[in-house]
Amino acid sequence: MKSSRLTVMLVVLAMVLGLASLASAAPIEIRFLFPVQTAGALAVAMEDIVDEFNQANPDIKVNAIFTGNYGATNDRIRTTTLAGNPPHVALTEMVQAIALDELNAVVDLTSYIEAEGPGFYDDFIDGFWRGFQLEGKILGLPFQHSVPLAYYNLDALAEAGLDPDNPPTTWDETKKAAEALLAADPNRLPIVSPGDAWVLQGLVESNSGSYVKDLETPSFDDPKVIEALQFFYDMVHTWKLLEIRGYGEASEDFLAGDTAIMYNSTGSMAFVRDNAYFDWSVGPLPRNTVHSFPYGGGGLYLFKGHSPEEEAAAWRFMKYLTSPEITARWSRTSGYFAVRKSAYELPEMQAYFQQFPQAKQASDLLQYTNRQWILRRYGEASQLVGTVFEAVLVLGEKTPAEGMEELQAQLSPLYK
Questions:
Q1: Do 285 and 166 reside in the same domain of the chain?
Q2: Do 41 and 120 fall within a single domain?
Q3: Is 302 in the same domain as 243?
Q4: Quick one: which of 48, 64, 180, 277 is 20 to 30 A from 330 by CA?
């Protein structure tokens, strides 16, 4: 009897020890919030990447939570952070770095980056860091970035007697090309473009201007800003050579052959690639003085409020997402730029450029990129900017000079 009891006790003890061992080996769970502006296939592609990480790292379990678009993601980040339950990692807009820092929500990544050695920092595309660096801190890792580009229907250019191998690259050339396109086919729009501050920043910078001088000094009433917006205003309202469309609408017009030139994000390249029935190419937005335009997009943020073990696991996941192989894969899938220099040397990227030369044309333009405009109290500032830009450029209710003077007067009290 005693022997039986001893056996049972040993079995129970073994089970308890086994369960304790299993409990101690349970993976560290982290929550990852991610938006995908076009959802669908890209959301599935991100989930596949996360699943592969989990399989290769059994001590970590990343729970990927699709949160819709950037706006919905930002709302969820703020709500959960204020409630004391922030995500571990989130992918959201680069321009949110300043707001997240003001909220004291994200970890300064400088020590993590330095621990990786100098090769880690130096392997990222140089300009992409600028959007995440603030007052000596590095608040995020670059992940998916785009720039506004000019897309050209080369067949339409040829039909209008223009040289498809040399699309217009200056303001004057653009106006003349648009006039020739309209004369050749009055039923086809010469140019379509969004009318928001991001695309228009490209024209402002191409005139050597800037919306801001620093984080607390807007300069929308600068003559170079007004001159650039006047060119766009005249293309729309005076010369009737450009029509304003949303990003998705512009892509649809371009693919339908209803416009010859489109200004749009590189984020639309995969969609154009998969659906265009005509020859096309991409190039920089037209310049007046220099080629320069903003990059936008999103990065990865590491959030405060978690244990050191969870924070370290989250960092491992962030490194994985920005590894050369994964950033190259995400670029080929989404159309965003790969953020690591070494990614462009991978055989699969070289083969991709051979198959899809427009992607190489776009990557060659990274030398001209600059940071997207940013101010403190960005949410309030961007709302004011959007309202005035719509009144001036879309509706034509004010001249650019009137609108920018009004905007400057509205913004200035925010920074006193």
A1: yes
A2: yes
A3: no
A4: 277
208 phi, psi to nearest 5 deg: 60, 30
**Residues 216 and 162 grouped into a single domain:** yes
- State pTM to two decimals: 0.85
Q: Residues 118, 235: one domain?
A: no
Q: How many Cα neighbours within 13 Å face the side chain of 380? A: 10
Tokens standing for 108? 């300064």
Q: Which residue type sits at 24?
A: S
pLDDT of 39 reads 53
Q: Tell me which amino acid residue 110 is.
A: T
131, 97 Cβ separation under 8 angstroms: yes
Task: Provide the domain limits for residue 346.
Answer: 26-146+296-370
The pLDDT tens digits for 62-79 are 999 999 888 899 999 999
Q: Name residues whose C-beta falls within 8 Å of residue 73's C-beta, 6 or more positions apart in sequence.
A: 33, 34, 35, 67, 90, 91, 92
Residues 344 and 380 placed together within one structural domain of the fold:
no
We report the CATH number of the domain holding residue 64 as 3.40.190.10
Q: Are 36 and 46 in contact (CB under 8 A)?
A: yes
